[in-house]
Sequence to fold (264 residues):
Amino acid sequence: MSQTIYQVDAFTDRPFAGNPAGVCLLESPAADEWMQAVAREMNLSETAFLHRDGDGYGLRWFTPSVEVDLCGHATLASAHALWQTGVLTPRQQARFLTRSGLLTAELEGDWIRLDFPATPASPVEAPVVLLEALGVKALRVGRTVFDYVVEVASEDEVRAAAPDFGALGRIECRGVMVTAPASMPGYDFVSRFFAPAAGIDEDPVTGSAHSCLAPYWSERLGKRELVAYQASARGGVLRVRMAGEGRVHISGQAVTVMRCELLV
Fold:
């Protein structure tokens, strides 16, 4: 029996930008080994696997090398696929049961709004190896349950960062985000996200990182609603809002670019 897989570009309104994710709509739960093998075959930063579970969908995310506990762009891509294929109507909320609890998505015009747990960063002293691997001068360093966040002085420094991925991959964390206030008109902050330990040197657009970046920049800029740009080669736009009670709304757009049939 074949399995349909969708490839969706998330956090963009045009093909071949944003962050591509694979989406498998399954009839029933699949074996971990099979999902990891499919993710490795897709060779995208994440492939999402979801199946009906009560009034929602069980959702898991795999990079080509590991399963992850939280992923924004593949969640957005999964919600997009459910609406685009008619599994859900545009008025229906997408509900996902995940390792990080219940996540929801709602369609708001051309945008999809995700409701995610906030993962604020606590200030820490930066490991010397971290800053050496990044090759940046840090103004502040924080640590979340998943990642390091490193603030630098300018957008130019974010864009110019050229990490040593071998050294960065030996640091015990999911990934490292580098961020600064935006100099581009219309944006509040910019970032990049590196996760070589998870098999992804640079993630094009990282929704889950904004569970940290939203409260981080909300506090510093005194704003509850912000517009973010992830300055990877593909680039991506996100709207974020502090939603109260430890939650963050992360909004983006998505485009389906491919539908294929897995034959084995």
Q: What stands out?
A: The radius of gyration is 18 Å. The chain has six helices and 18 strands. Residues 3-114+251-262 form a domain with the Diaminopimelate Epimerase; Chain A, domain 1 fold (CATH 3.10.310.10).
